[in-house]
Specification:
With 297 residues, the chain is α/β, with parallel strands linked by helices. It is 29% helix and 24% strand. The radius of gyration is 20 Å and the shape is globular. This is tRNA uridine(34) hydroxylase.
Length: 297
Amino acid sequence: MAYLVAAFYKFVSLSDCHSIRSTLLERCADQGVKGTILLAEEGINGTICGTEASVRNVFAYLEQDSRFARLDIKESWSPQMSFAKLKVKVKKEIVTFGQPQANPAKQVGTYVKPEDWNAVIADPEVLVIDTRNDFEVGVGSFQRAVNPQTNSFREFPEYVEQLDPETHKKVAMFCTGGIRCEKASAYMLDQGFDQVYHLEGGILKYLETVPADDSLWEGECYVFDQRVTVIHGVEPGSYDNCAGCGHPVSPAEMQSPQYEAGISCPHCYDKLTDDQRERFTERKKQILLKRERAAQG
C-alpha cells in the first residue's frame, strides 16, 4: 500500500501552541502530508497520511523538540491518501471532555498491553467500558463491553455518575487510539474508582498486535479518515461513510433501497429535506463530472 497513516498523541505542557502550529503546518505542507493535528496547552493529538518518507520526516521534525519525544504512534497503511486536506488547529483541549480535573499528566489509570488485554476483559469482576461514541460502538466492539450510548465524549461523565465505585471495583476502558481513555481513566480515579485499567494504544494497537484467531474484537473499527473502518492487521475495512449524514454504512446497508451513494442511507433517508436531497444530488453530479474530465485528461 502506498500511503502511511499515523495516529499519534501526547499529553505534555505546551505554552507556545500558535508558534508550533505555524512551523508544523509549513513542514507538513512541504512534505505533502495531509490530515488533522490538534494542539492545546495540554498536548498534541493527530492523524496524518502521506508517503512513508514524508510522514517519517514530519515525525523527525517534531521529535527535534524534546517535548515530543516518545510520541504514542499507531501506524497503518492505505492504498490511497486518507485525507483530502491538511488542518493544524489550536484548541482548548486535544480531546474535548470539559473536565479540567481529568489531567493525565497528574494521574492516569493502569496501562494494559494489547497482548494482556484479553485476560483483563475476560475477568467477570471487571466492568469493560467502550468510551467511544454510540455510532462507533455500532460498527464493532470488544466482547462483554458496555456501550455508554454517548453522542460525544463530553457526555461520558454523565454515564460515570450512574456507576458506583463500591460496586464496580475493577474497570477496564478502551477507545480507538488510547487518548480518550487517558482522560476517562484520570476522571474515574478522581471520582473515587480504585482499579482503573485502559488499553494501551487503543483498538488500533490491539488490531495491529493480536492475531485474529486470538482476538476478542467483534466487527470493524471506525476511524476518522477516508478509510472509514479498519479490521485486523489494521487493513481497510468494508464500510463507507454516507455523504448525506456522515454515518458509517455497512455492506448490508448499502443493499438497502434507501442507500444512494453520495446522497442518503438508511440512517438519514427519512430525515433529509427536499432541499438537502436536491443539493446532495447536484453535488454528486458535479463530482462525477469532475472525475470524467480528469479521466479524459
